[in-house]
Task: structure prediction
Amino acid sequence: MPRVSNYYKIENGKLIRLKKTCPKCGDGYFLAEHEDRWSCGNCGYTEFKVKKK
Ligand SMILES: [Zn+2]
Result:
């Protein structure tokens, strides 16, 4: 049984996602974090991080 709590934390009463899930593969697949992007090891989906000014 996966420990879902590893992927979430509660901060000021709000649920914060620590990891992004793959929109193609579904909730069971998490994107691996890189310096400038997120990527799915399953399907290769890549999401680039947007830097806020
Ligand atoms: Zn995927």
